[in-house]
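Q: What residues go here?
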């Protein structure tokens, strides 16, 4: 009991210290706004009405860093948490979290199961709805800070995205043998809607956009578990459409930067960075790249946590790339976040997020 109280007090002090450092070291107008899916969800799905329970609200999620489930689909911290730490900011809180809000250093709208157009989890907050929440945050900031200061904050803020994977998982489930022309049209629809949201954020005052692109969707443990014929390999179709998305995303962001004055962006090559860790974990101080730490069946590809039946949990998540069937461990997230923060241009470009924060 004493250990739990001490941990809670220490963590509260850490958040207060981060907030203080954010003001003294980065200036009062630095902020991080996060949009996305389960990879970036800090617990918004704890507060949505859904017919499917949120397994991330149960043990063993959160076991390593927080020592209790937070709604993050991870054993500990997720990528936006590390970006906040690197930027000397407090963790961006879940937008839907009840209580008193102070969104002057940012907020996180991401939701497990969310997509740009589609959702893979009932009640998930799709990107267009996340945008509507951001509009409410802008009104809150204008009331709290005044128009001029709120606009300055929004201009200096970084907008971090991880979105799109669930759109393509939906495509694969519904049309596993879709033609190349259909997939091109589908990607164009996703990118078109995503670009529309980015334009609206720009009109609302946002200037600095950071993306984690789509990962190797056909290589997640859940895919291996679904299709025993894959073995240690990957499902080709989801990987192909993820690569199509990433090429179209890069092209779209470049066009926006050419057409919108002051628009700056950063893209992290999540696809290849994660794939290399899965295939060569020992290069990165990890031991297991193909199987998840938590779950049951081949590759521990199902049933981690909650009331999902019998499952196994590894003794040391820090040795694994994957924590569950589709989500990386805190150890992996730390490495990925470091690449987002200071990666070279061929990994995170045209500039990295540390450089993005320093603009304006």
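A:
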């Amino acid at each position: 009991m004493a250990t739990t109280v001490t941990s809670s007090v220490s963590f509260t002090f850490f958040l207060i210290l981060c907030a203080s450092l954010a003001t003294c070291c980065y200036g009062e107008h630095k902020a991080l706004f996060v949009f996305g899916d389960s990879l970036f969800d800090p617990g918004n799905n704890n507060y949505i009405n859904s017919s499917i329970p949120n397994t991330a609200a149960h043990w063993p999620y959160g076991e390593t860093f927080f020592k209790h489930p937070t709604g993050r689909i991870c054993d500990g911290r997720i990528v936006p948490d590390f970006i906040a730490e690197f930027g000397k900011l407090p963790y961006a809180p879940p937008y839907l979290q009840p209580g008193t809000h102070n969104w002057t250093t940012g907020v996180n709208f991401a939701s497990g199961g969310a997509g740009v157009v589609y959702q893979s989890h009932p009640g998930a907050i799709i990107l267009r709805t996340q945008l509507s929440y951001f509009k409410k945050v802008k009104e809150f900031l204008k009331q709290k800070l005044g128009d001029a200061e709120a606009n300055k904050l929004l201009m200096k803020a970084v907008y971090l995205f991880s979105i799109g994977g669930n759109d393509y998982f939906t495509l694969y489930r519904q049309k596993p043998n879709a033609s190349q022309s259909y997939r091109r049209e589908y990607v164009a629809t996703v990118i078109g809607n995503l670009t529309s949201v980015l334009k609206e954020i720009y009109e609302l005052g946002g200037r600095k956009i950071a993306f984690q692109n789509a990962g190797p969707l056909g290589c997640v443990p859940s895919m291996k578990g679904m299709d025993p014929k894959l073995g240690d390999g990957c499902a080709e179709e989801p990987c192909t459409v993820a690569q199509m998305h990433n090429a179209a995303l890069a092209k779209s962001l470049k066009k926006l930067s050419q057409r919108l004055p002051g628009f700056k962006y950063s893209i992290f090559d999540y696809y290849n960075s994660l794939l290399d860790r899965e295939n060569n974990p020992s290069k990165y101080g990890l031991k297991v790249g193909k199987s998840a730490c938590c779950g049951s069946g081949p590759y521990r590809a199902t049933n981690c946590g909650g009331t999902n039946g019998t499952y196994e949990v590894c003794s040391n998540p820090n040795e694994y790339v994957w924590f569950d069937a589709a989500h990386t461990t805190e150890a992996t997230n730390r490495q990925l976040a470091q690449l987002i923060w200071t990666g070279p241009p061929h990994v995170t470009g045209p500039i990295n997020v540390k450089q993005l924060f320093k603009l304006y």
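A: Context that may help when evaluating the design: DSSP finds eleven helices and ten strands in the chain. The beta strands are 32-36, 106-108, 158-162, 208-212, 264-268, 288-292, 294-295, 312-313, 320-322, 348-350.
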